[in-house]
Design brief:
3-stranded antiparallel beta sheet
């Protein structure tokens, strides 16, 4: 941040582009450098004249790294967030992804196939069971992403993190025997709803 402030205060007629280059920030191996990507978003808002860009790389050799850096530095692309993984260039995009159609009558849950990267998340069918006496069954309509879930998926959570999701909005569809909660009705916010993804 010191050099960024020096450049801004120097009143240079043509400001240089500001690049933040990280290794493994997006795949979970360089979690310490991932915060730079968050800082870059702030720089883009506060100092748009610097055209701040992020580049995350994984590479086999210094020669590959130099090739990637030169390719990006001399590119006419206006992308601000770029990742090179497995010799493939990716950019930040929201786009509709065609996925296999799921049977709406079956319950699904977002699960972790293997901890260590967010790429290993997968929808899995689950067996529906009746709720116990102190439980309710919720038809989840929206769930919140908690930082605990990210740490859980990346295998960085200290101790047992359990299932993904711990808060949601939904409707009660069944209650445990002896439970006085009424099923059905308005949508409600539920905290500590384990496995709500």
């Amino acid at each position: 941040m010191y050099w960024l402030q020096v450049i801004i205060e120097a009143n240079i007629p043509v400001l240089p582009q500001w690049w933040l280059v990280t290794q493994g920030a997006l795949n979970g191996t360089g979690i310490a450098t991932a915060s730079l990507w968050g800082m870059a978003k702030v720089i883009r808002i506060e100092y748009p004249e610097l055209q701040c860009r992020c580049l995350d790389v994984d590479f086999e050799s210094d020669e590959e790294l130099v090739d990637i850096l030169l390719t990006e530095l001399f590119s006419t692309s206006q992308e601000t967030e770029i990742a090179w993984q497995n010799k493939t260039r990716s950019v930040a995009r929201l786009e509709r992804k065609e996925t296999k159609h799921y049977d709406n009558k079956l319950p699904y849950q977002l699960g972790i196939v293997q901890r260590g990267t967010l790429s290993n998340l997968q929808l899995q069918t689950v067996n529906r069971r009746p709720p116990e006496a102190t439980e309710v069954e919720i038809l989840v309509q929206a769930t919140g992403l908690n930082f605990r879930d990210i740490l859980n998926a990346l295998d960085l959570y200290p101790g047992e993190a359990g299932l993904l999701g711990c808060e949601c909005v939904g409707e009660i569809v069944s209650v445990g025997v002896g439970n006085t909660t009424s099923p059905g009705g308005d949508k409600q916010l539920w905290l500590l709803a384990s496995g709500s993804f």
